[in-house]
Each structure stands twice: as structure tokens, then as C-alpha cells.
């Protein structure tokens, strides 16, 4: 079956440092979504990427979809304590089902 | 934005009992609802995909006789954990997708504890 891996599993950064999480799929994806889950909360949709090589920005967050549509990344510039949480990618297949990545837990040290 | 609710938010039950979890889309019609399970510090695992008016499609390894899913209307899907055991204790989250867009909207989740 489809596998979506994320690295790193955990990341601790000082406030103000940058952070990147990488998402890799075993199969070609039709699209990819990114979610943020705060401790004790439920996943909140951040963005969807559809096109090969697509790059989207949301303030300090930059999302990339690889040319082969098998990998993606989320980069946060100058992290803040409000960025704490687990970031999941979710790869969409042609049937529009999404398979979640393993997640990256971000801790921001003030 | 679209709102999805889940009820109950937390349930504790004895081993061997059945538990029903409701997932409702409050302000949109959801032709498709998804059920996920999340163990502590782990990712969300898709259990099944539920289309209104038809049988749910279960992921490999998920017992359809144990996790009964019903999607009788465009705003309601239910997950019944039958004869629950302690290993079924988990966080169950539903999501819903409308007819004209791909984004899933997640419910707040139900934490099930089986004693």
C-alpha cells in the first residue's frame, strides 16, 4: 500500500531559527495536503499543492511539491512559540483518498 | 469555514461493550466522510472511507465487522466499535469532504478508553 514518510520525527529549535520537514511518498501523488495538529487538538488544514514543482507561501510558511510529485517540504522561517505542534503531510491518490505521513513534532524553545 | 462535529468527545467503557461515535457536517453536505484512528504520538491511520448511501470501504487490516460504519445522510456518519477491548483505546477522528472540493475538514475527535 501507499506509504508516506516524514523526516525528522522530532525537531527542537530555538525561537527565531528556521524549521523544515520533508515528506516522501512511495508512489506518485495526485496532490498533497499539509496539516498542523496542536497537542490535544485535531488536524487543521494548512494548504494543498497540486502541480508538479509548485511552491506556495503563507506568511512565514513555504510549501513545495516536488517535480516528480513524490515528495514535498514545509519550511518555517523564524519560528515562533505559536508554531509548536505536529505537522503532517497527507498524500492524495487518484481516488482522492489521503494517506497521512508519520508527522514531525516541532518544539520551539523560547 | 466548514464545521465538523463529533460526539461524544470522550468515552470510557467496559471491555465487551459497543460504542457509537457520531460525525456530523454542520454547514455543508458531505458526500464522503473518512474515519481515522490515532494512537499516542503516532500519525493518523485511515480506517475507512464512507460514501453516503453506500457501504464503507475499509483499509487493509481494519475489521469491518468490528468497526461498523454507517453514512445514512449527507451530514451524518457513525462509527460503532463493537465488543470493544483495551487495545481499541485510541483517538478516533472523522473528516468530511463536500461535493465540490477536495479539502477534508476534521472533527475534534473522540477519545475512547476501554477498561
Give a brief outline of the structure.
Chain A is mainly β and 110 residues long. Chain A has no helices and 11 strands. Chain A has strands spanning 4-7, 10-14, 19-25, 31-37, 44-49, 55-58, 61-65, 71-76, 85-92, 98-100, 104-109.
Provide a descriptive summary of the structure in words.
The complex is a heterodimer of chains A (110) and B (115). Chain A is mostly beta strands and 110 residues long. Chain A is built from no helices and eleven strands. Chain A has strands at 4-7, 10-14, 19-25, 31-37, 44-49, 55-58, 61-65, 71-76, 85-92, 98-100, 104-109. The model of chain A has no long low-confidence stretch (mean pLDDT 93). Chain B is built from no helices and eleven strands. In chain B, strand 7 and strand 8 (76-81) form a beta hairpin.
Name the features.
heterodimer; A: 110 residues; mainly beta; six-stranded mixed sheet; five-stranded antiparallel sheet; 0% helix; 55% strand; globular; B: 115 residues; seven-stranded mixed sheet; four-stranded antiparallel sheet; 11 strands
- The overall pLDDT of chain B, averaged over residues, is 91
Integer average pLDDT of chain A: 93
Strand content of chain B: over 45%
Distance between the termini of chain A: 40 Å
Give the helix level of chain B as a range of percent.
Answer: under 10%
The assigned structural class of chain A equals mainly beta
Unreliable stretches of chain B (pLDDT < 50, length at least 5) are none
Largest interface, with counts of residues having CB < 8 Å to the other chain, equals: A-B, 21 and 22 residues
User: Helix and strand string of chain B, N-terminal first?
Assistant: EEEEEEEEEEE
Alpha plus pi helix count of chain A: 0
Number of strands of chain B: 11
CA-atom Rg of chain A in angstroms = 13 Å
Task: Characterize the biggest β-sheet of chain B.
Answer: 7 strands, mixed
What's the total count of β strands of chain A?
Answer: 11
Helix content of chain A: under 10%
Amino acid at each position: 500500500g501507499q506509504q508516506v514518510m516524514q523526516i525528522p520525527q522530532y525537531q527542537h529549535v530555538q525561537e527565531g531559527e528556521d524549521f523544515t520537514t520533508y515528506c516522501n511518498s512511495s508512489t506518485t501523488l495526485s496532490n498533497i495536503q499539509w496539516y498542523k495538529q496542536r497537542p490535544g487538538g485535531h488536524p487543521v488544514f494548512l494548504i494543498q499543492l497540486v502541480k508538479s514543482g509548485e511552491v506556495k507561501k503563507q506568511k512565514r510558511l513555504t510549501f513545495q511539491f516536488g517535480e516528480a510529485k513524490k515528495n514535498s517540504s514545509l519550511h518555517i522561517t523564524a519560528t515562533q512559540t505559536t508554531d509548536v505542534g505536529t505537522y503532517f503531510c497527507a498524500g492524495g491518490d487518484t481516488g482522492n483518498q489521503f494517506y497521512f505521513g508519520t508527522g514531525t513534532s516541532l518544539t520551539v524553545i523560547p | 469555514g466548514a464545521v465538523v462535529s463529533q460526539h461524544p468527545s470522550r468515552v470510557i467503557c467496559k471491555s465487551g461493550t459497543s460504542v457509537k461515535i457520531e460525525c456530523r457536517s454542520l454547514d455543508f453536505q458531505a458526500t464522503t466522510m473518512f474515519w481515522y484512528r490515532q494512537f499516542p504520538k503516532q500519525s493518523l491511520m485511515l480506517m475507512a472511507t464512507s460514501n453516503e448511501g453506500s457501504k464503507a470501504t475499509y483499509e487493509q487490516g481494519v475489521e469491518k465487522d468490528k468497526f461498523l460504519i454507517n453514512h445514512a445522510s449527507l451530514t451524518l456518519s457513525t462509527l460503532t466499535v463493537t465488543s470493544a477491548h483495551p487495545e481499541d483505546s485510541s483517538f478516533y477522528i472523522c473528516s468530511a469532504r463536500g461535493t465540490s472540493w477536495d479539502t477534508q475538514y476534521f472533527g475534534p475527535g473522540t477519545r475512547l478508553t476501554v477498561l
